[in-house]
Design a protein that fits this description.
- There is one protein chain.
- The protein is α+β, with helices and mostly antiparallel strands and 769 residues long.
- Among the domains are: 41-126 and 151-200, no CATH class; 730-769, no CATH class.
- The protein is built from 13 helices and 42 strands.
- The strands form two sheets. It has a 39-stranded mixed β-sheet that branches. It has a three-stranded mixed β-sheet with strand order 7-10-13.
- A hairpin with a 3-residue loop joins strand 2 (57-59) and strand 3 (63-68).
Length: 769
């Protein structure tokens, strides 16, 4: 027995000596002596300055522990502070660590301050601390199946007065977490614990000022990778972006296994109240029970409601998800539906959308295979007043591949439209589309166009209130596709067989080529709009067009008749529509046949002159004459600079007249200043016939001027008188007008008066202004 006692004594003595040595080491060892060495080591390895301003404390038994006082760490290669703490403490039990278990006392951290900055080049000020990925050439060892995992147990954590900030110098986004306070109970495998969290969140881009509080009981099962939070009670209040006076609360039980895409909610409710641009909103979500696992999915009906009320807008919307079945990889719902009733001013929209739902959560694929929607739109500002639309189709979304596709058919009034969409990237949309419409009258759904008289009356006011032209939306998406309309009416223009190819990228929209049938002819050309500088370019060719009905429908004026061709090439840029019109550059050409210029009847004016020569038939035709000037052919070309179209080569022919002209059309200011010259040629046919033959060689200048909506014309009677004076009918006309032939001096005439002047005044009274 004694042989066993002595070894036992020896062990006890050795243990006592070991304990005494550790105790003596703990009592005698002063870690603060090594502060300079620790700071130098950090400086050499990280190029950051570490300052251990507070006391260092070490403990060895029964726990390995360390405590820090005030400590700061600088930015890399600079004196500016990156992070700091007021105090920290952590300790780990020794004996459990020998058994492969990590048992820690409460972890405490107070006064943490840290700032993370992302530079414009994408790098951050913590990249050196995080380190780079492991080299690809170094294969990671496979985990041993029989290796015992390290188990850990923390009695609790406590973080007080932490302030964290993040700033992105590229986007201007900033986020600050102030007064962060976190307290947890025990953290161990499959052991329940309680937590309480509070913080103040502030930021910009978007604006953020939010007070957050959260409490609940948690359970962490590391082996099953199951995380649950029961008795959740979360509250947030403050401002987020355009939402002010936000009050948000969430309650319920949540559980999730992220690796298996499994989750469950029970007795869950979410409510949010606040104001958006001064309008109050209220949103509520209720999920009594919903469970989705790898093997089974089931749940009760999920409901959501949203209401928005303001002086100018109102919205009531409901969402419901019912009939959940299947599993996480084959999840189905009998229907997901949305009902809404919205109002904006005098405009209103009401409708319902519904479809079954199919989802594969692990693959992140979702499908609405059978969409049925009804929509009603109403507005007193449009001719149609109310539009009822029915739509059907399918939508598929694959988040893993970052794409989506849709096929939709819509019917409203006499229109059937079919649309195919293909989104190649959801994060930065690249849209492919194919649109086919049988017939569409857009004028039934657009605000009525002002007539010429109304537009003229309010021209100055509207010009002063012209709004900037914002094309920035073109920069946010890329698209390509085609559109076709069997019949299309827009702004009273009637088109058929419309075909267009479209491409949109980097803010530039190209509609090229495009073509259509219209007004007994055809149209073909190209159009581009560039948001980078608000640039517009048009190139159009109209062949065999009947210009009369085209101009009547387009401009609301009955100004010309005839058939022929029109070529147009223009480009311009500006911040408003008016500015673009004033910047237009390019050219245009018109070639017409068998038509008439309306608004003035040159034949009638000349027949009045002929009537003074004694023709009774001409006097009779004068009463029945129409206000138009016929032509057999007409050509003109225009050079357009700074929104002003200049023409110098007008040429029109009729059996008895030759028409020429020159002048300009101010597109930017909607005005014209033009002089047309009609010359009588010898002919016994056509408009005027033989009655005008005796006026052969006489030229009548007509000045056209004023606004597009109400132009006026004036005959240059002085030029007519001069022409008559040189013609062989001058003497007889003078007799008819009571004007004596030219003499050296005319008795009784006023000072400076000549026979030519008297002829001019007689003609003015005869022909009228």
């Amino acid at each position: 027995m004694k042989k066993l006692v002595y070894p036992l004594y020896a062990v006890v003595i050795l243990a006592a000596l070991a304990v005494a040595s550790i105790a003596a080491f703990a009592l005698l060892f002063d870690p603060n002596k090594f502060k300079p060495e620790i700071e130098q080591l950090v400086q050499r390895s990280t190029q950051r300055t570490l300052k251990l301003e507070g006391e260092l404390g070490l403990a060895f038994y029964p726990s390995l522990g360390v405590s820090l006082g005030r400590t700061t760490l600088s930015e890399r290669n600079g004196p500016k502070a990156f992070a700091a703490i007021d105090s920290a403490h952590v300790s780990i039990a020794v004996l459990p660590l020998l058994r492969g278990e990590m048992v820690a006392d409460e972890v405490r951290l107070a006064g943490l301050r840290a700032s993370v900055v992302r530079s414009k080049d994408g790098s951050t000020n913590i990249d050196d601390l995080l380190g780079g990925p492991a080299p690809a050439s170094k294969a990671q060892p496979a985990p041993q199946k029989d290796a015992k995992a390290l188990r850990f147990d923390v009695s609790g954590t406590r973080i007080e007065r932490a302030n964290l900030s993040y700033r992105d110098e590229g986007s201007g986004q900033a986020l600050e977490i102030e007064g962060f306070d976190l307290r947890t109970g025990r953290i161990a495998d499959d052991v329940p614990g309680a937590l309480r969290l509070s913080a103040l969140l502030k930021g910009k881009n978007p604006a953020l000022d939010l007070r957050l509080e959260l409490a609940g009981e948690y359970r962490l099962n590391f082996g099953e990778r199951l995380f649950s939070l029961s008795g959740l009670d979360a509250k947030a209040s403050g401002r987020v972006a355009e939402v002010s006076g936000l009050e948000l609360s969430a309650k319920g039980d949540l559980a999730a296994r992220p690796d298996q895409h499994s989750f469950s909610v029970a007795k869950f409710s979410l409510q949010a109240k606040g104001k958006v641009e001064g309008e109050a909103f209220d949103a509520r979500v209720s999920a009594p029970r919903l469970s989705v696992t790898a093997d089974k999915a089931e749940g009760e009906k999920l409901d959501a409601q949203v209401s928005l009320k303001g002086e100018q807008r109102a919205l009531e919307a409901k969402l419901a998800l019912s009939g959940v079945q299947g599993s996480s990889s084959a999840l189905t719902a009998s229907e997901i539906s949305v009902e809404f009733d919205a109002r904006a001013g005098e405009n209103a929209a009401k409708g319902r959308f519904g479809s079954p739902l199919q989802a594969d959560l692990p693959a992140r694929r979702y499908e609405l295979p059978k969409i049925a929607a009804n929509l009603s739109l109403s507005s007193p500002q449009v001719p149609q007043k109310t539009v009822a639309l029915q739509a059907a189709g399918a939508v598929r979304v694959d988040l893993a591949k970052d794409n989506a596709a849709a096929e939709l058919t819509a019917k409203f009034d006499e229109t059937t439209a079919r649309l195919k969409l293909d989104l190649k990237k959801l994060s930065a949309p690249e849209v492919g589309f194919d649109l086919a419409v049988d017939r569409l009258d857009l004028d039934r759904y657009l605000p009525a166009r002002k007539e010429a008289g109304a537009a003229a009356g309010g021209g100055s006011a509207s010009a002063g209130a012209e709004q900037p032209l914002d094309l920035s939306a073109l920069k946010r998406v890329s698209a390509s596709g085609r559109a076709q309309f069997d019949a299309l009416v827009v702004q009273r223009l009637k088109l058929a067989q419309v075909r267009a190819e479209m491409r949109l990228a980097k803010g530039r929209l190209e509609i090229s080529p495009h073509s259509a049938k219209l007004y007994e002819g055809s149209l073909a050309g190209a159009l581009s709009v560039d948001a980078n500088g608000n640039r517009l370019a048009i190139k159009e060719s109209l062949q065999g067009i009947s210009v009369g009905p085209l101009v009547r429908d387009l401009a609301g004026r009955d100004a010309i008749e005839g058939h022929g061709n029109v070529a147009l090439e223009l480009q311009g840029a500006g911040a408003t529509v008016g500015a673009i019109k004033k910047s237009l550059e390019g050219n245009a050409r018109v070639a017409l046949r068998d038509g008439a210029i309306k608004g003035i009847n040159l034949a009638e004016k000349l027949r009045k002159v002929r009537a003074t020569l004694g023709s009774e038939s001409a006097k009779r035709e004068l009463a029945d004459g129409k206000e138009k000037t016929d032509f057999s052919e007409l050509t003109a070309s225009f050079v357009i600079r700074n929104g002003v179209a200049r023409n110098d080569d007008l040429a029109a022919k009729s059996p008895f007249l030759r028409l020429s002209g020159a002048g300009q059309i101010d597109i930017g200011n909607s005005r014209l200043d033009y002089v047309a010259k009609a010359t009588v040629v010898a002919s016994g046919k056509g408009q005027g016939g033989a009655d005008l033959a005796r006026l052969s060689g006489i030229t009548v200048p007509v000045k056209l001027s004023g606004a597009f909506e109400s132009p006026s014309y004036e005959v240059d009677y002085g030029a007519v008188a001069a022409g008559l004076a040189k013609s062989k009918v001058a003497d007889k006309l003078g007799e008819r007008l009571g004007v004596s032939p030219p003499k050296a001096k005319t008795e009784g005439a006023g000072e400076g008066a000549t026979p030519g002047d008297r002829v001019k005044e007689k003609l003015r009274g005869l022909l009228g202004r």
